[in-house]
UniProtKB/TrEMBL annotation:
Recorded GO MF terms: hydroxymethylbilane synthase activity; uroporphyrin-III C-methyltransferase activity
Family (UniProt): Belongs to the precorrin methyltransferase family.
Catalyzed chemical reaction(s): 4 porphobilinogen + H2O = hydroxymethylbilane + 4 NH4(+)
Annotated source species: Termititenax aidoneus
Gene: hemC
Its job: Tetrapolymerization of the monopyrrole PBG into the hydroxymethylbilane pre-uroporphyrinogen in several discrete steps.
Tetrapyrrole methylase domain location: 221-418
Name of the featured protein: Hydroxymethylbilane synthase
GO cellular-component term (any): cytoplasm
Pfam families linked: Porphobil_deam, TP_methylase
EC number annotated for this UniProt entry: 2.5.1.61
Keyword annotations: Methyltransferase, Porphyrin biosynthesis, S-adenosyl-L-methionine, Transferase
NCBIfam families: cobA_cysG_Cterm (TIGR01469), hemC (TIGR00212), PRK06136.1 (NF004790)
Length: 441
């Protein structure tokens, strides 16, 4: 008979959480091992400053990695991002109540607390929310297990505290709620998570029935290449064919035409963005949670000036697994179009990919070949900065517009004459010795 060793923190809430998980797996036997986390051992650390991200998991993570336990149960919102190498979330349980509650002396709601009252919270965001409604309050750091926290109110040390509704419910303390607060909470609040070593496939199978992510769709962050459909990778094509929804950028608009999925324009044209990044991130997340296979299609490569990193982080922090499909970046497409080797044995042994926008942030590092993206409105500034950094005025400079597309055009000039050019994005500027004339013969 299989018997697992489960590690948990020692608080009454943590123990309830373990019991709750295993009540759902009646056939699985387990032995409980408790261990105080770093945060349990250092109760003076304020969570309102910048606590270590693994403050509630460090010791338990180590126990798993040392193979002294099979799995750990956590409040999902306590997990550090990213998880330590070698660990994985093997189950994310469906959310309970995700809201926060106010517990106060005499059950007063927030608006009726006395002027200047002391209110405890462990979240800097909650502090902000509290102060935005009641700037007079004195917000202080709140630590300890739920019992110890409630004691701060009962002893008169604090007039009120903010606690997660689900924690109070789990402990049968819902009667202490004076008011449910309307504040947005951590996206994983109210979820329990089971972590284990990433290589424990058998454990994944045992916990899979509990994993709410079973019903989620897949997410892929896909590079579309420079625009010509022939430069799309086969892997990208497969994901795009399997997608239910494609969120696409302006530079990928030629590509999406070929696919049957629902298409949502998420690009930026003439400086106007279809959605602010934060809203787009949330739309991606909600679509995955609703069970759709989501393709996020970006021009070029998703990790080069595409804000792909932000989208990945947003989703991964919410425990969405994201596939990344690299794409041919505009620098490569422009170099191919203009026949400019970005490196060349003996002449150029380093390349820098740079942003030409905004003007005051243009960098001029000491690489042999410099490739500027988003340089459409800043060619004069780039030219001036590079000359000031010591590059000779006759250094070759080549602009490639619409690389790989029918409208492709190439302008070969020098650093000195670059400032006279007036051309429009999308263009790539390549500067360096290898950009001298290699035009087609
Ligand atoms: N992730 C993309 C870059 C996005 S930033 C990539 O890896 O290519 C947008 C910039 O990319 C544009 O301002 C332009 O500088 C460049 N770009 C994208 N496609 C291009 C193309 N077909 N031709 C020239 N430049 C292009």
């Amino acid at each position: 008979m299989l018997k697992l060793t489960i590690v948990s923190r020692n608080s009454p809430l943590a123990l309830r959480q373990v019991a709750e998980v295993f009540a759902l797996l009646p056939d699985v036997k387990y032995r409980l091992r408790t261990a105080p986390s770093y945060g349990d051992k250092h109760k003076n650390i304020s969570l309102l400053d910048t606590p270590p991200p693994d403050i509630f998991t460090r010791e338990l993570d180590r126990i798993l990695l040392r193979r002294q336990a099979d799995a750990a149960v956590h409040s999902a919102k306590d997990l550090p991002y990213p998880l330590p190498e070698g660990l994985a979330v093997i189950a994310l349980l469906p959310a309970g109540d995700q809201r926060d509650a106010l517990v106060s002396r005499n059950n007063l709601p927030l608006r009726k607390l006395p002027r200047g009252a002391v209110v405890g919270t462990s979240s800097p965001l909650r502090r902000q929310e509290l102060l935005s409604r009641r700037p007079d309050l004195r917000i202080v750091s709140l630590r300890g297990n739920i019992g110890e926290r409630l004691q701060k109110v009962d002893s008169g040390q604090m007039a009120a505290i903010v606690v997660a509704v689900c924690a109070l419910r789990r402990l049968g303390l819902a009667g202490r709620i004076a008011e449910i607060l309307p504040f947005p909470t951590h996206p994983l609040q109210g979820h329990l998570a089971v972590t284990a070593r990433a290589d424990r496939q058998n454990l994944r199978k045992i916990f899979q029935p509990l994993d709410t992510r079973r019903t989620w769709g897949r997410a892929a962050l896909i590079g579309a290449g420079p625009g010509n459909p022939l430069l799309l990778t086969k892997q990208a094509d497969i994901y795009l064919r399997q997608a239910d929804i494609i969120f696409y950028d302006d530079l990928a608009r030629n590509i999406v035409r070929d696919y049957a999925a629902r298409k949502i324009y998420a690009g930026k044209r003439k400086g106007r963005q279809a959605y602010p990044q934060e809203i787009l991130n949330e739309k991606l997340y909600q679509a995955v949670k609703a069970g759709y296979n989501v393709a996020r299609l970006k021009g070029g490569d998703p990790f080069i000036f595409g804000r792909g990193g932000e989208e990945l982080e947003y989703l991964q922090k919410r425990l969405v697994d994201v596939e990344i499909v690299p794409g041919i970046t505009a620098a490569s497409a422009a170099a191919a179009a203009a026949r400019i080797p970005l490196t060349y044995r003996g002449r150029a042994s380093s390349v820098a990919l740079l942003s030409g926008h905004p003007a005051h942030k243009i960098k001029t590092p000491a690489a042999d070949t410099l490739v500027y993206y988003m340089a459409g409105t800043t060619l004069p500034e780039i030219s001036a900065k590079l000359r000031r950094s010591g590059l000779p005025p006759r250094t070759p400079a080549v602009c490639v517009l619409n690389a790989s597309l029918p409208a492709q055009s190439i302008i070969r000039t020098t650093l000195k004459d670059l400032k006279r050019l007036k051309i429009k994005d999308p263009l790539i500027l390549i500067v360096g010795r290898t950009a001298e004339n290699n035009a087609k013969i």
